[in-house]
Amino acid sequence: MKKKSSHKKKKSSKRCKSDDSLSEEVAWLIGEGIAEAMLCTTPIGDRKIAISRFEEAVELDPNNTEALNLLGQTRLQCGEPSDARDLFDRALACDMPLEDRITLIQRITETYESCEDYTGAISYYRKGLELCGDVADFHDGIGYCYGELGDCAKALEAEQRAIELDPHNAEYHNDLGYTYQQAGQLDKAMVHLGKAVELDPDDQLARNNYEHCKAEWDRAKRQP
């Protein structure tokens, strides 16, 4: 989209501010955008205002990964996947520590998952594996998405890899056990759900899944 000349003059004047002042203005714009985005589910919220605030922040600081990511999230939620992908890719192209890059991938994929675009989420989990190495959480995320897409075979493969990388993670055992249950492999499901409860006795989700699977397993054993 072309910018009006008056907007360019405004942008130029902002560039003349000190670095501290510029950072403060970018932070303010991001905060305003987040607040407006959170109000979008209410009558007083306006997603267009949120987009405008994030766009201004990106214009002032083109390498601000938070502003790029938030603008991408909002574009995706508005049904503009191509624009969203461009923004996410720009954010990932910025220089940052590995830990921050992993967090950014997690935030991007969470947005796709919240929009039930599991194919889009998988593509960024895979991009994360390319950029960040063999991260167990990304494999687990791929497994979750394939599970939502109804592809148990690919879900199991990904979740098994997550456990190979982090065998003492209760969440990964719970996810693998749940997928085995969905696939009808109750014996294997019981093993991993039981392991999840053993590793984290306070995980109520894992405990509920284990009890539900055990009940199904008991019914199956009683059948002639």
Would you spell out the secondary-structure blueprint of this structure?
Blueprint: H1 5-15, H2 19-38, H3 47-60, H4 65-77, H5 81-93, H6 98-114, H7 118-132, H8 136-148, H9 152-165, H10 170-182, H11 186-199, H12 204-222
Helix pairs in contact: 2-3, 2-4, 3-4, 4-5, 4-6, 6-7, 7-8, 8-9, 8-10, 9-10, 10-11, 10-12, 11-12
- Mean pLDDT metric: 87
Overall CATH class of the domain at 53-133: Mainly Alpha
The quaternary organization reads as single chain
The CATH homologous superfamily of the domain at 53-133 is termed: Tetratricopeptide repeat domain
Helix amount: over 70%
**How does the overall form come out from the CA principal axes?**
elongated
Question: What is the number of strand segments?
Answer: 0
Main beta sheet strand tally, sense and closure: none
Topology order in helix (H) and strand (E) letters? HHHHHHHHHHHH
Radius of gyration: 22 Å
Low-confidence stretches: 1-18
Structural class: mainly alpha
Total count of helical runs of at least 4 residues = 12
Overview of this protein structure:
The chain has helices at 5-15, 19-38, 47-60, 65-77, 81-93, 98-114, 118-132, 136-148, 152-165, 170-182, 186-199, 204-222. It has 224 residues and is an all-alpha fold. Among the domains are: 53-133, Serine Threonine Protein Phosphatase 5, Tetratricopeptide repeat (Alpha Horseshoe); 161-224, Alpha Horseshoe (Serine Threonine Protein Phosphatase 5, Tetratricopeptide repeat).
Q: Which short descriptors sum up this protein?
A:
mainly alpha; Serine Threonine Protein Phosphatase 5, Tetratricopeptide repeat; single chain; elongated; 224 residues
